[in-house]
Predict the 3D structure of the following.
Amino acid sequence: MASHATTQTYDVAVIGAGVFGAWTAYSLRKSGATVALFDAYGPANARASSGGESRIIRMGYGAAEVYTRWSMHALPLWKELFAQAGRSELFQQTGVLWIAHEGEPYALATLDTLAEAGTQFQKLSHTDLTRRYPQIVFDNDSWGIFEPQSGVLMARRAVQAVVAQAQKNGVAYRPDAVLSPTGEGRLGHIVTASGDNISAGSFVFACGPWLPKVFPEILGGRIFPTRQEIFFFGVPSGDSRFAPPSMPTWLQMRDEFYGMPDLESHGFKIAHDHHGPLVDPDTQSRTATPKAIAAAKEFIARRFPALKDAPIVESRVCQYENTSSGDFLIDRHPAFENVWLVAGGSGHGFKHGPSVGEYAAARVTGTTSAALPLDPRFSLATKQTIQERAVF
Ligand SMILES: Cc1cc2nc3c(=O)[nH]c(=O)nc-3n(C[C@H](O)[C@H](O)[C@H](O)COP(=O)(O)OP(=O)(O)OC[C@H]3O[C@@H](n4cnc5c(N)ncnc54)[C@H](O)[C@@H]3O)c2cc1C
């Protein structure tokens, strides 16, 4: 290949155009910075954690009130961006139903936090649940929390819309892989796989599940990419019980399953939230396993009996990029004064994209966001090598 190495200079280079990197680039540009955004495989590509069809946005987070606030902050920003892009269909206000059980501490704490935060919700009794949703089988000790304003972000297309808007505002998007930087102190430039040198004042590595491969010495063993399998079941022709408004998005805490109604005729989506085996995002098999298929079918038949013979019309294999607790990582690299690490979405990060971007941009530019004050739970120091999931 002919050499075409070039050197270009920006205020900030953002590496990774998943939901975290896309919103970070967008926010930095909004603050006036010149920004380049890189991705090895493309925004919300099929290997990326952001590359799925859809992601839940909900406000309930147990006692972890910072995530309730971040999600409440994020939803209007998502809607605003979609409105600017003329793509309001990328948020679907399906409502989100938490299916809880008697004495469940997480759900009880969620009630308190939602009330304290002043977001809309309804507490539903077992009778309310069975009356409203006769197509779902509830245990006798079930009760519910319904968030009417929450719903689903159409994930892959949403990230692509953020990148398109960022480009419209002047962000330079470059489809290229960035090589791991070496050294310490002040990083002057990065080198891409195609041989370009990119100089910048600051660098943000938002590489999701790849981040431990980019910085193995500090993040190897501190970010745990786990295999997650997702299934879409084809609903019977003409049956509207599994589409909005009859069916909300739901989370079933006892069985650790969650799902979404049939959106855009794509099928009724379900996924097991339990962490799967550790995987490498470049090489893991993207084919569903017989074990996960059987578990999904068993769950469907038990909780949604009208779908017991429904065919799987699509399956996807993705990965969570978990930190030890489930708290995000948004912090400075310990060896480079001008390199920032933004990752650790831990299976719940997508909805927070606008808040992560705003928080990260404030850190990079040395300011603070009034709405999202500095929080030590996002520091590298809190990220351990043993997983004890505390955020769901
Ligand atoms: C199955 C599943 C279901 C989920 N459900 C929800 C949900 O319902 N609600 C919710 O809020 N969250 C959910 N999440 C979590 C959420 O999707 C992730 O936390 C989020 O997408 C992570 O985004 P990211 O930008 O950090 O990573 P990614 O989307 O993986 O982006 C990282 C990007 O970096 C690029 N990259 C890596 N290395 C390099 C390099 N060296 N050079 C250039 N580019 C590079 C990659 O190509 C990739 O595009 C779910 C995740 C999964 C997998």
About this structure: The pocket of flavin-adenine dinucleotide is lined by residues 15-21, 38-41, 45, 48-50, 52, 55-56, 177-178, 206-210, 214, 228, 230, 271, 318-320, 343, 345, 347-351 (CB under 6 Å).
